[in-house]
Write a structure and sequence with these properties.
- The strands form six sheets. This protein has a nine-stranded mixed beta sheet, with helices on both faces. It has an eight-stranded parallel beta sheet with strand order 30-29-28-25-24-23-32-31.
- The radius of gyration is 28 Å and the shape is globular.
- It is α/β, with parallel strands linked by helices.
- The protein contains 22 helices and 32 strands.
């Protein structure tokens, strides 16, 4: 094993070798416990420390659906975030472990889980995940303090369920959504393509899931038919061949498309006599379905029907179940997440009771992660465990703490199966009560900025800004930042940009938001996505490309972002901000977003080459090679890119302040500085130095409380109280789904760091109904 402390540009390491070590158990990936340091105080240049562990038995990864890491850290505040990599071939699979989950064993013990099939990025050109030969486990700087990590266990959990991933883009996205659902529920799963469904693979698992697979080959259908006939279970959604329906005990039905959109198939209601799915109903909002009918074999039955938006029962089955599997007549949509998760756990747990146990383990562990528990002592952890077990006993479950382990005998799971649903309901109810108690224990702080980013530009309830503002005001919030315009479209009466289809449907969203905001005392800051043309009219995008105004990558690929150095683009972006300030005198502020390049591989259009040479005098002979990587003009080009972004910020500041001096100018910026200068040309510290902003909102999107606090600490050093810093809390940022207590805990950290306010991403119908009602119990109580 090799330990490395990483910083730029140097690397130091030592080798920890293990010769002939025996594995702790059949699925262990760590030969023995190992300790490595986090030198984040003694070496301020070091940003990350990691350890490389060779995988001696590659078959373990190939047959695993989940990798569990358990470690001890003597000073967890040193850890900002953790990362996990699998090296295969000439590249890596990278997984971000966003939150360290405390083990019930004690406050310095942590458990993290990696689902190899879910949420990975690739670096280089890796081979198959199953062929991985090295694990890299690393930790990034949090607070600037030294700490020691003892890696106690890395275990691979064998597959019991496989999700078949289609090669088609849309089908693939549904598969990923399904995999994320199972990960949330604590159920280990892995993905496989059709090519991977060989006899050996099928014989090693209990359940195959088809989340949306309309492209199955004849060979795959034959293999799945044999799998079911040999005792395997098949669970399919929306598309399933007549042959596979028959082998499950179902007859082919018909396809129905709703002429009323999602109103005809709005809800699924389960048969009350059905003991498999202990739900009354779940929202679905489907727009078309493929039905089936039960045959008189394999105990096939209809377990649920579709209901329309008026609450009327239709004749169409939603769910069929037999001894051999199940068929749901549409894909699972995103509505009603809690009910959907419960539905999946119950359905899969019916065929494999160990899944119900794993869900119970996940729900038990979640009870130890409510709020900010970083300072909890080992004694307090033990006391909490005892009190939770006592509460469970009151609810009819006389259990010991060691019951909640991942490893449980299948016979025990089967015996306890009738009680799991009640146990999981109890654990979920206990966590909800704990969250409410924690939120109510907090106190509000007067005079702070309390805001939401609102991405749709329509309010939490599309077309009803009054309701949105009323609920925000009642929850103690005083500002909202709605996304009202992009690089090529606007949701207001713009004379500069094309008007978005949302404007035609819902009207002027700036005007409506301001009117409702004034009524309820809520500031409105108009959020503009700069440069990016997503959602813009096709003819507008094509016009920009034809005029050479869009960005070009180093390989010559033309993108759909406006080039920041093009003079006409600078004029366009500036005029959109100025138009807002002129047209809407009651608008509180304007807000920059995407005020950057997409990444380090932009922009290298002919115009950028010409303007760079003119601005700098650098005689570039080989463009873009000379300005990238180790090119001789790379430092100059890096600075020039920053200058192009800054040029727009400076001009918008100058011209909008001339129109109305009291307009507030702000920006959503990357959390890590100065890396964002190099990566995306965003030099926000320079903007603060020059006085271009009235306040700043770093997107500090992380569930890890130590990381969140460390980011604010570093940002405060750069800003030095020259303007207000309002940290961005990523409640529903990409890959994140915070519970209200986690949001409240981050608000408390903002206050601990004496920041004068905060802003939360993202306001929607779901989040406004879930988070503000909890926050107003304490942290934002009016």
């Amino acid at each position: 094993m090799k330990y490395t402390a990483l910083f730029v540009p140097a690397v130091c390491s030592f080798l920890f070798a293990v010769f002939g070590a025996a594995f702790c158990s059949a699925d262990s990936l760590l030969p023995k416990e190992v300790t490595f340091p986090l030198p984040f105080a003694s070496d301020l240049k070091t940003d990350r420390a990691y350890i490389d562990i060779p995988i001696t038995d590659k078959s373990i990864i190939g047959k695993s659906s989940q990798i569990e890491i358990i470690f001890e850290c003597d000073n967890p505040r040193a850890v900002g975030s953790t990362s996990f990599y699998l090296q295969s071939g000439k590249g890596w699979y990278s997984y971000s472990l966003r939150n360290m989950e405390y083990e019930s064993k004690g406050k310095n013990y942590f458990r993290m889980v990696v689902n190899p099939a879910v949420d990975y990025r690739t670096e280089g050109t890796p081979g198959k995940i199953a062929d991985a030969d090295t694990i890299r486990f690393g930790m990034w700087r949090g607070a600037s303090i030294d700490a020691t990590v003892k890696l106690l266990s890395i275990r691979a959990v064998p597959n019991q369920i496989l999700t078949v991933v289609s090669e088609r883009g849309e089908n693939n996205s549904f598969a990923k959504s399904f995999l994320n659902r199972l990960a949330r529920a604590g159920i280990p799963t892995a993905s496989v393509s059709q090519d991977g469904l060989d006899e050996k693979t099928l014989n090693s698992v209990k359940i195959i899931v088809l989340p949306l697979n309309g492209d199955l080959t004849a060979d795959t259908i034959a293999a799945l038919k044999k799998f079911v006939e040999n005792g395997g279970k098949l669970v399919a959604f929306y598309t399933l061949s007549a042959e596979l329906k028959k082998v499950l005990g179902f007859a082919e039905g018909k396809h129905y498309k709703s002429p009323e959109g999602d109103a005809a198939f709005a809800e699924v209601r389960f048969n009350l006599g059905n003991k498999i799915i202990p739900l009354e109903k779940m929202q679905q909002k489907s727009w078309n379905i493929n039905t089936a009918k039960p045959l008189p074999q394999f105990n096939a039955e209809i377990a649920a029907y579709w209901y329309d938006a008026a609450g009327q029962k239709t004749e169409h089955p939603a769910l069929l179940i037999s001894d051999r599997g199940a068929f749901f007549s549409h894909v699972l949509t995103e509505e009603d997440r809690e009910a959907k998760d419960k539905f999946l756990v119950s359905l899969l747990g019916h065929f494999a009771p160990s899944f119900l146990h794993q869900n119970a383990v996940k729900n038990w562990r979640a009870l130890f992660t409510v709020g900010d528990n970083r300072d909890r002592t080992d004694e307090q952890v033990k006391a909490l465990s005892a009190s939770l077990l006592a509460e469970l006993k009151k609810r009819g479950f006389d259990l010991k703490a060691d019951f909640f382990q991942n490893d449980v005998d299948e016979a025990v799971s089967l015996k306890f199966a009738p009680k799991y649903q009640g146990l999981n309901d109890a654990l979920i109810a206990m966590r909800k009560a704990a969250i409410e108690k924690y939120c109510a224990s907090l106190s509000p702080k007067k005079g702070e900025f309390r805001a939401w980013w609102e991405h749709a530009g329509l309010g939490a309830y599309p077309g009803d800004w009054d309701r949105t503002m009323k609920e925000l005001s009642e929850a103690g919030f005083n500002a909202v930042v709605p996304n009202l315009l992009w690089g090529g479209s606007a949701i207001y009466a713009s004379d500069v940009l094309p008007r978005h289809a949302k404007f035609e449907q819902y009207g002027d969203q700036v005007e409506q938001a301001i009117k409702a905001g004034k009524k309820y005392g809520i500031e409105v800051h108009a959020w503009q996505v700069c440069y990016r043309l997503t959602g813009s009219p096709k003819e507008f995008v094509e016009k920009m490309k034809a005029e050479g105004r869009t960005q070009v990558s180093s390989s010559g690929e033309v993108g759909d972002w406006l080039c920041p150095s093009h003079p006409k683009n600078i004029d366009l972006e500036t005029e959109t901000f100025c138009e807002l300030v002129r047209k809407y005198p009651d608008l509180t502020g304007i807000h920059f977003d995407y005020i950057r390049y997409p990444g380090s591989d932009n922009c290298f259009c002919p115009g950028c080459k010409e303007r760079f040479i003119k601005d700098t005098g650098c005689q570039v002979e080989n463009f873009p090679k000379d300005v990238r990587g180790s090119g001789k003009f790379q430092p100059q080009y890096e600075q020039w890119r920053c200058d192009q972004i800054t040029k727009l910020v400076a001009r918008v500041h100058r011209e909008t302040k001339q129109i109305r001096q009291n307009i507030k100018i702000s920006a959503a910026v990357f959390s890590q500085y100065p890396s964002c200068r190099k990566g995306v040309g965003q030099d926000w510290v320079h903007w603060v130095d020059k006085g271009y902003l009235d306040f700043i909102c770093p997107m500090d999107y992380t569930e890890n409380l130590n990381h969140f606090e460390g980011l604010i600490e570093q940002q405060q050093k750069y800003i030095a109280d020259r303007i207000p810093l309002y940290p961005g809390i990523g409640a529903t940022a990409t890959g994140i789904a915070m519970t209200p207590d986690r949001v409240a805990a981050q608000i408390e950290i903002v206050r601990k760091r004496n920041a004068p306010g905060f802003i939360i991403f993202n306001l929607s119908e779901r989040t406004i109904q879930a988070i503000p009602p909890m926050l107003k119990l304490g942290a934002t109580r009016p």
